[in-house]
Amino acid sequence: TRLRAIAHRLALATPLRRGRPLPAWRPTRLNARYHHAVRLAELVLRGRSFDQDWPGTVRVNGFLFDMVKVFEDFVTVALAEALRPYGGRCKAQARLHLTRERRVLLKPDLVWYATGDRPAAVVDAKYKAERTSGVPQQDLYQMLAYCTALGLPRGHLVYAKGQQPELTHHVRNSGVELVQHALDLEQDLPGLRGQVARIAEAIVSPSPGG
């Protein structure tokens, strides 16, 4: 019944044709509920958008950021810069395989190669919601897979600081250590860079026993 009612209301609506001018409309009190939706539809149909660095006629009230991607990008770039004085090279989103058959693809956020093509460290950034039960186990499994594929005795997970302190997890019967770091995002930019520098130092010169 409701669908028939909607179809009846849209009986006079016609599909838009590519290249034809958009139909004009006038905001009134009667269609006030649809103002935002119609204006957004106009932006889409006209192929328009907005950019924070480019002046234009489109006004918006805010941005929606993917904080997982923002945090991952920041850690990757900042840590690569912090590792530069130690030599070697960094590769973001390095593609490697867990199995000899190359059927299981792995893409850690950052791999540091100290000399040539020999990997020296692997890092993954994790922006997670607050948890009371510790680090998600799948993060540890994932990092263990990275270390196994790269032949590394140690892997590094970088989290946004929450309830959990910095820890080192020693994997039984493998000799692999999974180091959990935390970045305090309430710090200013120099403070964040200082924390990243300390993580880089821990990657290059790990303390005895983790």
Give the uncertain stretches in residue-range form: none
CATH top level of one domain is Alpha Beta
Order of helices and strands: HHHEEEEEHEEEH
Rg calculated over all Cα atoms:
25 Å
* Strands in their spatial order, largest beta sheet: 1-4-5-6-8-7
Q: Describe it for me?
A:
The protein has helices at residues 2-9, 35-45, 67-83, 137-150, 189-204, and strands at residues 89-92, 96-97, 105-106, 110-115, 118-126, 154-160, 167-170, 177-183. It has a domain at 67-204: Trna Endonuclease, Chain: A, domain 1, CATH 3.40.1350.10. A six-stranded mixed β-sheet has the order 1-4-5-6-8-7, sandwiched between helices. Helix 3 (67-83) packs across helix 5. Helices cover 31% and strands 20% of the residues. The protein is an alpha/beta fold and 210 residues long.
